[in-house]
Write a structure and sequence with these properties.
Layout: E1 5-16, E2 19-31, E3 36-40, H1 47-54, E4 62-67, E5 70-71, H2 77-86, E6 87-90, H3 104-115, H4 120-134, H5 150-162, E7 168-172, H6 180-197, E8 200-204, H7 208-214, E9 217-222, E10 225-231, H8 232-237, H9 242-249, E11 299-302, E12 305-307, H10 310-316
Parallel strand pairs: 3-8, 3-9, 6-7, 7-8
Antiparallel strand pairs: 1-2, 1-4, 4-5, 9-10, 10-12, 11-12
Helix pairs in contact: 3-4, 3-5, 4-5, 5-6
């Protein structure tokens, strides 16, 4: 199947007082329609910036973004407007992403009004359909964000993202601000919508339990770079990169008898400002060696399982 989204060598750097901050550094992947790519890593690793750069909420420094076979790396104003209908985002904080002066129905209809393709009556009908789709009762159509709980606010965000019938949605930690029971409801809703509409998700999160449940493939990022990528089950059963192993060891086990050995990372975090060409995890890695000072290349260790670590390059060779 042809890829819906193809990202090649994507980079996003920011100027700082002491140099260039490498927020996203040479990321490449493909994503098919109806599939979910989970993106995990510590806070500050570049997950959100990657999603925002793909959507051109911030412009890329370098690299190629191809959507449905068309290069959208440097879109014109008209191309960007058309692209907004096909690519959307669900923001992390459902409260701050909504206008406090807009009621539920007004917030959901805003994308449709800006699009300008439907009549007022058609927009009202579409808003009712969207509210029903995401599970917001009709009695809340004139309510305001401060009158709603977090779960209903996030459903508004999902409805807004669905309004223009996109094919690709960046989900920027969409359940991290919600209670566990509400998280399950939102995730199940997203899975149902994916099956019904063939949506492709890029699911950004730091919750590894959630990402295993919802993702087809998982990408692990560290300081702007991809260090490992594999199918979800493969990543959890055959973890390769030392950083990924440390992340998985932090997942709580709901048992007082079966305790998991926690891997505690030592050492200073490498600065993302003008980083050296070697492995950025080297200072915290228990397996660090001289070869780690050389640039690390993402290589396929087994079928669809990629890792950037000289430890496995040595084994492979």
């Amino acid at each position: 199947m042809a890829a819906l989204l193809e990202v090649n060598g994507l980079k996003k750097y920011f100027k700082s007082g002491s140099g260039m901050l490498h927020a996203v550094d040479d990321i490449s992947f493909t994503l098919e329609a109806g599939k979910t790519l989970g993106v995990v890593g510590e806070s500050g690793c570049g997950k959100t910036t990657l999603g925002r750069t793909i959507l051109h909420l911030t412009d890329p420094t370098d690299g190629e973004i191809v959507f449905e076979g068309k290069d959208i790396s440097n879109p014109t104003k008209n191309e960007l407007k058309a692209m907004r209908e096909e690519m959307q985002i669900i923001f992390q904080d459902p409260y701050s992403s909504l206008n406090p002066r807009m009621s539920v129905s007004t917030a959901i209809m805003e994308p449709l009004v800006l699009q300008g393709k439907l009549s007022k009556a058609e927009i009202r009908d579409e808003v009712k359909t969207l509210m029903d789709t995401v599970g917001i009762a009709k009695r809340f159509e004139n309510a305001y964000p401060h009158e709603l709980d977090g779960g209903r606010r996030q459903r508004i965000g999902i409805a807004r993202a669905l309004a223009l019938k996109p094919k690709f949605i960046v989900c920027d930690e969409p359940v991290s601000a919600l209670d566990v029971s509400i998280q399950a409801q939102i995730i199940n809703l997203m899975l149902d919508l994916q099956e019904e509409r063939g949506l492709a998700y890029m699911f950004v999160t730091h919750d590894l339990s959630v990402v295993k449940y919802i993702s087809n493939d998982i990408m692990v990022m560290y300081l702007g770079q991809m260090v490992e990528k594999a199918p979800a089950d493969e990543l959890f059963t055959n973890t390769l990169h030392p950083y990924t192993k440390a992340l998985l060891s932090a997942i709580p086990v709901p048992s007082i008898r079966n305790k998991k050995e926690r891997i505690i990372m030592q050492g200073e975090i490498t600065s993302p400002i003008n980083p050296k060409p070697g492995c950025r995890f080297m200072a915290r890695c228990p397996y660090a060696a001289e070869d780690c000072a050389a640039p690390q290349v993402l290589e396929e260790h087994s079928a669809n399982h990629f890792v950037a670590c000289c430890k496995y390059k040595t084994i492979k060779n």
